[in-house]
Amino acid sequence: MLGKCLSRPWFWLLLLVGLVCLGLAAADLVVGDASRAFYLLRAGLGTWLVMPLYLLALRLARPWPRRLSDRLRGRLGLDEAAAAPGVGWLWFATHTALAGAALFGLLACWTPRGHAVDWLAAWNRGLPVGAWQFTPAAVFGALIALGVLQASTELLVASLSRRLGRRADLDVGARETALTIVTHAGRLIAILAMLHVLFGGFPQLTILAGALTVGIGFGLQNLVNNFVAGLIVLFERPVRVGDWAKVGATEGRVRAITVRHTELETAAGAQVFVPNSEFITQHVVNETRYDPRGRLEVVVKVTREADPVFVRQTLLDIAAAHAEVVHDAEPPPTVLLRGLEGGCEFVLWCVLTDASRRPQVRSDLLFAIHRALVDHGLS
To answer: Helix, strand, or coil here: 339?
Structure first.
């Protein structure tokens, strides 16, 4: 134990502060300044008392986050490697409370004798910054409130996710939408509570709201637009998590929807973050809103001498032989003759089990069609 303490920088800093105070107190006693010597002696010994108590409290509190994490993982069915929800914020609140108590004790030790009332008044009065008065108690209280409410939000979201996951009648998109709304509502409540404690009431926030309005007017329009658009997307749900959607030139599977952007995963596996405002201002194509399966269109052009009936049957047979083409879909695989300019242009329509596999299935079908046409002397 002593060896660990000797290897820590805070131990030597604490020892140095105490020795300096004791040395100066001894010097003041020699020159006859007893009051100053008593003040330095009280400050040095008080520092030696407060800081070890603070570090001891931290050491005693350090095991409980691990125990609480293990218990929460067991209750919520999480993996051992997964982070337990809310534990980090609870530890932040605990650490902040202990640090505030230690700061209060240190300031009390270093306050000159006879000025305790003035010191307490200054502690309660705080530091004036513009139109606000920031007190140390308000700052620490705001941080503690933020930590506790954020931890409560994470615990609520984790418990809600577990409960909603058991419901077979609820699709993934609805579950993710509900969790996202609860998450951001909890964060908003935590921030408002922190500001309420910090500024001493909601009426004091009017000046801050005015400053934010000016900031929005000058440079935060895009951020606000994406935030409002994100709320519209979450409530109206034109796209949901798991849908295959296309917005602008971007097409892919919706993996996550936040209040600022929507994450799409393309068929190539790339992650694309699309601002939510584009889902409001542009045309959005949701191919799997009512049916999780995706449609595929394959265009084939052959010479006019080819027998269209033979080509049509060949395309249908190739589509029927592919494992990822749904044969009993509505409509079933269909071949249309779309044009005769420069040759016969056929279009194969079919439904796939997974829309994200469209590029690979199209390639498989084109390979098979080319081989079949070449084998029968067509081009």
So the answer is: strand
